Amino acid sequence: MGDRGNAITIRLPSFNFKTNFWKFFSIILLLALVANVYLNVTGRMILVSHEASGDEIGRKVIDFINNNLVPSGTSASLVSVKDMGTYYEILTSYQGQQIPVYASKDGKFLFLQAIDMSKPIERQVERESQQTPQEIPKRDRPIVELYIFSYCPAGVSALNSFAPVGKLLSTKADMRVKFFSDMHGEHELQQSKIQACIQEVEPEKYWDYATNFFQDVYSKCRTTRDLGCDMNESISLMKKVGIDVEKVIKCVEERGGELYMKDVSDAQRYNLRFSPSLVINDVAVGPNFDRSSEGIKTLVCSSFTAPPEECSQTLSTSPSVSAGSCG
Predict the structure, then answer these.
(1) How far is CA 264 from each of CA 87, 130, 148, 202, 211, rounded to the nearest angstrom?
(2) C-alpha to C-alpha distance for 191 and 222, rounded to whole angstroms
(3) Which domain holds residue 184?
(4) CATH number, domain with residue 147
(5) CA–CA distance from 303 to each of 3, 17, 136, 173, 250 (Å)?
(6) Which CATH number fits the domain that encloses residue 104?
(7) CB contact at 8 A, 300 and 144
(8) Number of domains in the chain
(9) pTM above 0.85?
(10) pLDDT of 270-318, one tens digit each?
(11) Do 200 and 71 belong to one domain?
(12) How far is CA 142 from the centre of its chain?
């Protein structure tokens, strides 16, 4: 009981809050700053961004497509939404075709194509530039389709070579250019709609537009990536080659999205990934073909049951300005 008298006294340093207010406040601010830096560096944030449900994303995608990509009077519908782990795959239905598109989980970004980068893509072996097409069926009137991204350097270069062939053989074969990606930006999507519509409303004059596109539009707008530049220079070129601008713009506004989505769907049907790619009589030649005008003409003429006399005309053998591909 006697031990109770041996009390232990601990003296704490005195702290006058009034006289040391700014020192105290500075310490609090320093601690807050350190905590903020830690959270930003480690990513351990208390608040996280909202991750929408699959159904919510699906509805948002369909609303965006119907309000921006398809013409009035038509609509796409939602078939299903599949959670792919880091994004959603949305299967849409449009005019009897089922078309998959992809969206980020926060609902901010829509992608018309998805490539799984965790899996290697089998590359085709480069062949000699002067090649003979194999297993391309012959037809009385061949169907020839060049698939490109409208602002892909290699695609635009291939278009420059393809245009003289189209102009030479368009009365003997169904020659068309199709566009299936907007990976370079909104200006690329706009240009794709413009060229798709020119082929719809002024097909006989399209080849003049395609011949001059590289110099008159692409070379001026490829670095700016500006919608205004793309539209203004396209209009100037259309006027230059005698295309009815009003008819084309009306088509872009009313049917541009529909035509573009049809091209994307066709590219998916052939499992095309690269710009440029060539399809002749429903056979995908792929990106590895002789991209000179003469080389393309030779491929097309070999697909006729009976080649027309136009095939005897010699075109430029100059190689494509830009090699390689986009995709």
Answers:
(1) 20, 29, 10, 22, 23
(2) 11
(3) 143-312
(4) 3.40.30.10
(5) 111, 92, 7, 10, 36
(6) 3.10.450.520
(7) yes
(8) 2
(9) no
(10) 999 899 999 999 999 867 789 999 999 999 999 999 999 999 999 999 8
(11) no
(12) 28
